[in-house]
Amino acid sequence: MLASVRTQPSTMFAATATAQPNIALVKYWGKRNADLNLPAVGSISVTLKVLQTRTRVQFDTFLSADSLLLDGKLQSGAELLRVQRFLELVRARAGRKLYAHVESDNNFPTKSGLASSAAGFAALALAATRALGLTLPQAELAQLARRGSGSAPRSLFGGFVEMHRGELDDGSDAIATRLLSEQAWPLAILVVITDSRAKRVGSSFAMEQSRQSSPYYGSWIAAQPADLASMRTAIAEHDFGRLGEIAEHSALKMHAVAMAAEPGLLFWNGATIELVHAVRQLRRQGTEAYFTIDAGPQVKVLCAKPDAERVLAELAGVPGVEKILRDEVGSGACVVEESR
Ligand code: PMV
């Protein structure tokens, strides 16, 4: 049996990885190097548990091109190109010239401001490297994942995570590190969907437009180290009120920078704004809940676990809310299957 296996040339190398999206509490907005996808600012996030991406990568000697099946649909154009470029990096790193078939499924709406690219490229980086027999140290995996999406390194880790801006030109210090494990501070995170259609403007394009034309871009960059320091302290001290206030402020500042670009970038719809008011109303009534918003119209709300049902019931009544996904603090990306 063993002898016959040895005589068969191996033609297929596959691995499957899962990763959860992460929600930035101190936002990443702006790049210091667009080619290497180096962030202009550090950021701090929390990784989710229930929302998940599952990605299978199969390198095969019989394939003559890369292919991508995303949520059951065969992709072409920009989406495929982005994955092909990423696979080129993995092939170069492994010294292999095999094409791959990638299948990726999200259990949540894709490309609508729910960090599907963060989870997607964290899972892809892990699955593709493992499929080719590479077990990269976390710092190297983070650098690779970052080339796919600036927020992807954060999804490699569970709990509360910091993505470092780094100073080096080659980006070797632009990596993620964990601040606090997923067990250390259980919080509820409600993902309030107000429009599940794919967004029209991608974050890379919007960041560049902000950098080039927003009059607030410089002050956004200058204030980030202080926000990061305050958030690190809030997380270390489990100070939820402080965490929430910094998170809301960071989100509103990021959107103000984008809105002031030329032409202005506005990711919100009417329900997004109503939800912001509803969260602040809950606080006035004594329930500690805080919002954050990424490059889309969805609103993510953080609260203590015992308050989650009440907050959910209140927000479900806001006109324009399509759906609320109940989530919590989860773990980092992991390999779930390997075959070589
Ligand atoms: O990693 P990208 O290119 O999808 O950009 C993420 C940008 C925000 O989600 C708006 C902020 C963040 O830090 O996640």
Instruction: Please list the strands of the largest sheet in the order they lie side by side.
Output: 8-7-9-6-1-16
Q: Element order, helices and strands?
A: HEEEEEEEEHEHHEEEHHHHEEHEE
The helix tally amounts to 9
- Average pLDDT score: 94
Proportion of residues in extended strands: 15-25%
Helix content: 25-40%
The backbone outline, from C-alpha atoms, is globular
- State the distance separating the first and last CA atoms: 17 Å
Which residue ranges are poorly predicted, with pLDDT under 50 across at least 5 consecutive positions?
1-7
Could you give a short account of the major beta sheet? 6 strands, mixed
Alpha-beta classification? alpha+beta
Number of E-type strands: 16
Radius of gyration based on Cα positions: 20 Å
Q: What compounds are bound to the protein? A: (3R)-3-hydroxy-3-methyl-5-(phosphonooxy)pentanoic acid
Tell me what the structure shows.
The longest helix has 20 residues, at 217-236. The protein is 37% helix and 24% strand. The chain has 340 residues and is α+β, with helices and mostly antiparallel strands. Strands 8-7-9-6-1-16 form a 6-stranded mixed β-sheet. Strands 2-5-10-11 form a 4-stranded antiparallel β-sheet. Strands 13-14-12-15 form a 4-stranded antiparallel β-sheet. The chain starts with a helix and ends with a strand. It has helices at 2-7, 77-94, 116-131, 138-148, 203-213, 217-236, 240-259, 270-284, 308-316; strands at 12-19, 22-26, 31-33, 38-39, 43-47, 53-60, 67-70, 73-74, 99-106, 160-163, 176-180, 188-193, 289-292, 299-303, 323-328, 334-339. α3 crosses α4 (138-148) and α6 (217-236) packs antiparallel against α7. β3 and β4 (38-39) form a beta hairpin. It binds (3R)-3-hydroxy-3-methyl-5-(phosphonooxy)pentanoic acid. Residues 24, 27-28, 43, 117-118, 149-151, 203-204, 294-295 line the site of (3R)-3-hydroxy-3-methyl-5-(phosphonooxy)pentanoic acid (PMV).
